[in-house]
Each structure stands twice: as C-alpha cells, then as structure tokens.
Request: fold
Amino acid sequence: MVQVSYRSRYIKALKVGEIEAKWSANGQRILRYSIDFWQTELGLHKQVSAPEIYLLEIKVRELLDRWDRLADEQYRKSQLAASKEACDAMTAEAGAKLLAVSKILDWTLSRNDRVDWENLKDRSSYTGPMSFHVPKPSRKSIGEPIFFGPHISFWDVIFGRRARKLEQARALYEADKEDWKRKTEEAIALHNAKVDEWRQAKEQYEADCKRKRDEFMAAQDAGNSKIDQLAQDVQAGEPRAVIEHASLVLDASDYGGLFEKSYELDYQPAPAKLLQIEYELPSLDKMPTLKSVKFTPSTGEVKETHLSDREQKASFDSACYQICLRTLHELFEADEHGNLETILFNGFSTSVNRATGKDTRSCIMSVLVTKAEFEQIDLGRVDPKACFKSLKGVSASSLAALAPIAPVMEMNKQDKRFIDSKEVIASLDTATNIAAMDWGDFEHLIRELFEKEFASRGGEVKITQASSDGGVDAVAFDPDPITGGKIVIQAKRYTKTVGVSAVRDLYGTVQHEGASRGILISTADYGPDAHQFASGKPISLFSGSHLLHLLQKHGYNAKIDLQAARKELNLRNS
Reply:
C-alpha cells in the first residue's frame, strides 16, 4: 500500500485524505498521485499532486511547513489581549505585512532560486524501535519440604507409640515431597513454555523491526535515486521534468502567508523552449489593509485604521506586478541548463461579478518575455509596473479594476485532463459489488452510465486523469439550451456516510470550473448536513440506491454491499 510521510506540529487540526493514483487508460502505469489535506483550525484545503511519490512528499512537506507557520501566527494572535500592548503589537504586525507586500520582489533578489537537489533528498535516520522491551519470564522456585520429626512424649515411649508416630510422620513427609516434585516439574514446564513463547515473540519483533528498517532504507534510497534521475532529466531538457522542475521552484517561493499560490504550467521544448504559466493572483478582497490598531483605555475601545480605497488599489497593483516579475526571475535564475528561452505569464484573478453575484475568473495581465531580454534588467532598481510595461506586458491601467484583457498568447488549454475511455459497464452482473470495484474502473463506469443518460440529447461525457484535475472526475457536456451546459461529475467509491465536506468541495469546483451543475455520486448514503448544504444549490446527490436504479434503467444489474466492500478493500490494501 502506497503511503506518504508527513509531519505537522498541529496534527490534531490536520485532516488527511486517502492517497489516490490515476492510472493510464490501459491500466499499465500510474500517471499521477494525489492527496488532500485540510487544516481545520485555519479552514484551509489543498490537494497536492505529483507524478512520483517522492515529489509528492516534498510538496507535502513544504505545504505543511507553510501551514504550521500560519497556524503559529494565528495562535499567537489569539493570545493577544485587547490592551495597549496587544494593539501596539497588532500595529507592528500590520506594518510588517504592508511592508512585506512592498518587498515581494526584493525577497527573491537576495537568494539563489536554483533547486538544491541534495537538499531535497531524505537524509533522516530510521527512528523506529529496535529493541524488545518485554522482560524475560522469571520463575519462583517452590521450597523443598523439610522433615520434622513428631513430638514423642514419655507415655509414647512407655506404651510403644513412638515407632508408629515416626512412621506416620515419614509417610506425610514423603507425600509432601512427591507433591512438591510434581508442582516443581509443572512450574518448570510452564516457565520453559513461557520462555519459548517470549523468545519467539522477541525474534519475530526483531525480524519485523529489521524488515521495517530495511524497507525504510530501501524507500529512502529509491526516492533519492529518483531525485537524481529528475535532475538528470532536467539537464537533458525532458519536457515533463522541466515542468516538474519549474513547479519545485515556484513551490519553494515563500510569500509569507500573504496568499496561497496556485498555477498551471505547460512547456513546449525545442525549438521554442517556451514555458507557459497561468498564475492565480491574490484576491483584491484578501490583501492586507490594516494600518494600525489603537486602544482607548478609558472606554476599552479598539479602533482599527485601514488603507484608503486608493491605497488598497495601489497596493494590489504593486503586488501583482511584483509577483509577475518575481516569478519570471525565479524561473529564469533556476534554469541552469538553458531549457527556458521564453516564458509566457498570464495572471488571472477571480472576483465577484456585481451583476450576477457569481465568481468570475479573467486574465488581467499578460506578458511574453525572453531570457536574454529579462537578464538585461536590474530588478533591484526598477518600478515594477514600468518594468512590466517596458516588456510589452498587457494590462488595464489599473489592475484593481479587474478588467479582463486578451492575453499576449493563449496557453494551450486543450483540456489535458481528459483520458481515453475504458469499457466497464458491460462486465457488470448481479454478483458485482460496485462498492468494492477498483476506483479507476468505478470512474469509468460512471462515465459510461452518464454517457448513456445524455446520449438521447447528444451529450458527451469525458473522464479525467489526476494531473491537475481540480477535483473533477468527469465532465459532461449537455447541449440542451435550457437545462444543459457543462456539468462537473465527481465519483466517490465510499463505504461510509458522505459528510458535508465532499459536497462543499464539489460546490467550490462547480464555481471554479464555471459549470452549470455538479453531480456527486457515491456508493454510500449522505449525512443530513450534506443534504442541507446542497439544498438550493445546483448540486445533485446520487446515493448508492440512486446509482443502482440508474443502472437498471439502462439494463444493467449489480449490487452494493458496503460491509463486504470494507472487508475486501482492507484485505486488498493490507
């Protein structure tokens, strides 16, 4: 069973999903691994994905380190009392955040952005137990009986009873001695059995410890070897490795919790050597605006002073231009093997459309830069906006207006998430337990089923792979002009009641994808909180019984036995 190691100082606040693997259409290789993390105290959720487990662990470590720093900061804030000292501290903190926004570009100029391959390797020592702490069984010996002669009185001698008393005492002693021998032999046999059992347990324990240590060392060596291989592939300019290298560079870029980084990458190898980036810029509404906090002792009132609207817009514009230049600098500086000649940066922002009340995502800045051109710039002395414009970057006069622009070049957006279909539904029969199916086959089953459902109106259903699928397992395109549109489908082969988090995640995905509806399909039932959240939203919840009914509608029969599925899946993963 594939596992990912992770550490967090706030482990009680950490919720971790199961590691998932997306297979190729022919089922012969794994395309990508992914795992979900939730920080419940901070209300954060992130899906981390990578084509290899060792890369996944690197990204997980970076994510949890960043979240731990944010949690430290939140915990510190919660301890501040509403007093002058606390307000002074909050004022200093607010000033530091505003200063950090103005120094976004400076951060990268003082460091080497190249990937330190050796630092990525796991050099930790095995910390598992190696000694058997159960004490060896001991045996308490039973004292041998001692012969005590009988009391012989004067009259015993006179009347001849002495010999009889001696004989009776000797007989009792011999009986006690035989009983002692029997009990001693039984105790020795029982002790020897316990010692043998203890010795076997000790040998088994030590063998297990050695096996686990060997497995740890083997996995560590394999992971480190893959890092070496990735470094070689980057040097050779292998496209997939170039993308992963760029991802490592950007993931290592620390914005101090100002915003959560998100981006998509694509790469066109020689002769273009073009890296394309779609970067999610921070939200205008979530930029720091607090300038100072004043405490009035007489009233106990705490008064906050914020940036003016004009200052907020100027701060947002400055941050976005700096992020763009910083990203370009990091990637060009880290490119020590000449894989990048040109970078396309398209910056996107998501905002609320005041007319519809819905989230709208649009490109607000775009620039295409060559390495030779960019290396001529002294970033430590430029005005970020003027520099962006000198590179023939395209944007509105104010980025804070969130005015959509036509990018310099469209990133190749033919949805790479879609993979070839696989026929599964024809193999179903009454003995098939859908809840115990291979998860990949389950997703293909859902695609086939909904393809049949939409076939009458000319619809199409496509299944996605794990690579940046954004929480989408399948996408349906319904051409119906009234009820149709893009429909996001998530298939969950669950064996336990589905909670509200899965429904909430789907709703977020529907909004992010600009879909008209979302469908969540599970082999299990939904909790009341899940139904309550879905009420009034463009979300349909399909339980196991709904799924069986839809299968029967199209002429297929199967079963859902959650208890049997749990047992089978546990055996399969053990």
Notes: The first strand starts at residue 14 and ends at 16.
